[in-house]
Amino acid sequence: MSALRSQRENAFGEGMTIVALATTLGAHGAGQRALIRLSGPVVIQGLAGIIDPVPSHRCACATTLTLSNAGAPFVIPVLVMRGVAPHTYTGQETLEILLPAQPHLVQMVLQRLMDLPGIRAALPGEFAARAFLAGKLSLDQAQHIAALISAARDEDLFAADLVRQGEPGQRAVQWAQEIAEVLALIEAGIDFADQDDVVAISVQERESRLRALLMQIEHQTDVGDDAARSGLARVVLWGAPNAGKSTLFNALLGKTRAVASPLAGTTRDVLEEEWEPALGDHVTLVDVAGIAEIDPRDDGDALTAAAQEAARRALTGADVVLWCDPTGCFSTSGRPPVDDRDRVLKIRTMADLPHATGESRHALAVCALDGWHLDLVAKGVHELIASQGDSGFESRHAAQLRLVPRHRAAVKNTVRRLNEALAAAHSDEVCATALRQALNALGEMTGHISADEVLGRVFARFCIGK
Q1: pTM of this prediction?
Q2: Residue 161 within a domain
Q3: Domain that holds residue 182
C-alpha cells in the first residue's frame, strides 16, 4: 500500500465503512422517511445477517431489516439502494436504506449497524471527503456542498453557486499572481541588486500596483461591505479635514459614535453605522478621514496618507455622498471623485458661522450642534436613493463577488496584509514579508505559492548570473 494511501486511511479512516443518517427527522415522523447511508468495503458482507436479501448488483429493491427488541427479533420493511464501486458518490461500495422516520426506530437501526465489525459513525463531511479523495468531487464542488448546507439567505445560495463554478478561486488566482509578481520584483532588488540586469521595482510603482490591487479586490468582492451584502445603500461623508463631518455623523445618528475635535486629522479610521434617514429607509452612514493635499515625501504624514487612502476606497462603494464644506464654496479641488454627480448632496456645515464670499446657493445649510436642517439632510438622502430605482445602488453592487464565510475571512486577511505592505512600501524587507503573508492568506482559496515559485518568477523575468 502506498504511503499516500496510508496517510488517507489515518486521516479519514477509509479502511472502515461509515454510516450516518442522511436526512432530518420530523417532530413525530408521521408520513416521513429517513435515509441511512453506508459507504465502505464491508457494506455487502457485513449486512448479510441483517438485511435479507442484500442486493447483489446496482439496484433499488424492497427488502427487510431484522432488529432485536428485548432479545426478540422483529422485522421491518425497508427500501435498499445498492451502489457498486467505483461508480458511486464516494467511489466505494454504498448502500442506502429508506425506512420510516420514527426517531427511536432510526436510532435502533443506526446502533445495530455500528455494532457490526468494521462499521463506525461517519464524521462531519466524511462522505464528501471520501468523494473528493476518490476524484469524484473537485475542491470547489466540495466547498459548494458545505456552503449550501450553511446557507441561510438567498445571498448565501448565490455565493454557494459561485463556489461551485469556481469563480472565487479564479479571482483569487489573479490576485495572487499580481502579489507574487510584485513580491518577485522586491525580492530581486533585495537578493540580486549586484546584478546589472536586475532593476528593482521602485517605491512609486509598488505603491501604485498595490493600491490598484486593493481597489480591484474591494470592487470585485463584498469584503468590508456588509451594507452591500444586506441590501443597504452606503452614504459617505466627504470633505476636507475639520469640515464638520464627524459632528454631522454623530448628529444624524443621534449618538456619539465618532470623536469630534477642532484639531484637524482626528478621524483616521472608516466608521460605519446603520442609519434610518426616513421611515422605511435603512442605510449605512460612513464617516471617513478628511482629504487634504500632503507631500508624499514627508514620512511624518504616512499615517495621514493611509487614512486618506482608506477614505478614497470607502468612497468607491458610495451610493450617496454628503460633500461637507463649512465655507459653502465647494471648490473643484475638493470635489469627491465619483462618476455620477447626481449622487452628491452638498452640505454647508457649521451654518451658525458667518457666510463666506462665493458660497454656493445650491448647498444645504446645516448646523449639527442644534439640529437645524438635519431633517432636510435625511430627506435629501431618501430622495437620492429613491431616484436611483432598480438601476441604482443595487446594480452597482451586482457585479460584486459574494463570498462564503471561509473565503471572506481569507480575502479580509489578504486585504489587511496588503494594507500593511502598502504602509511599509519604503522598506523592502517589511513590504516583502507582508506580501508573503498576503499570499499565504490567499492560499486558503488558491493553494499556497512557495518561495521557489516566487524565485522562479524572478528568473523568468530577468537574466541573472551571466
Answers
A1: 0.44
A2: no
A3: 167-222+401-461
